[in-house]
Amino acid sequence: MKRPLLALTLCLTAAPLGAAEISASDLSAKITEAAPQVLVLGELHDNPTHHLTQAAAVAALKPKALVFEMLSPEQAAQVTPELISTPEDIGQVLGWEAAGWPDFAIYAPIFEAAPNARYYGAALPRETVRRAMSEALPDIFPEAAEYGLDQPYPADLQAKLETQAQEDHCNALPPELLPGMVAAQRLRDGAFAATTLQALQETGGPVALITGSGHARTDRAVPALIAHAAPQVKVISLGQLERPSDGSLNPDQPYDWWIVTAPTEREDPCAAFQ
Fold first, then answer.
1. pLDDT digit string (tens) for 49-59?
2. Where are the beta strands (DSSP E) in 11-138?
């Protein structure tokens, strides 16, 4: 019963011990002092400030490997020091914006901070992610049990995440899709964790993972899954958040460290549904 109990404990844990909001100016020194084997660097994908902070973190860590949520293994294999030296070309070569990600220019500083690192892509094929909408995770992800993904979420957490998924999609999803949306997120967490551990094993580390802040959560996302599969690995997670318009933010966040920034300007994603 150890695995289910551990998975449940990870899901119900709030902010990790010693967790704290920090400033971007303090980040490099904290990384040097902590010397993590794995540094999970969260972001809001379209916030340029977040990517500049990630670039500074990568420069401080000096990783042997960089893992990107945004890249497939095939795309990552194309990244070379020579390609990184021509930032005007790399986005096009990788098909970055064609895949739906924001302007590559705001991500370029991350690549430039580690031109000689080995690059790994953690993105799953879309058809694989779609399978999570209707199939059990162990049938899609052979390592599911290793990462605790063979166990369901507690019912109250599952309901909370389904509600969140609905809100994230402008309350426009058919309710029957919501369990699958939660499962797809768990599948991607598992893939990101597995690729990060692969990079650590193959290069010796340290390793930085570039991903959305939702995947950087220590309570149930990539750091929690790495802790389940490889508890001996030292992982530090950084979440990057935007300050709400009313200025309030929960003081307990599910990251080791978090940075709060001003929001970036963006169109209302739900305008089309109004």
1. 999 999 999 99
2. 20-21, 38-41, 65-68, 118-121
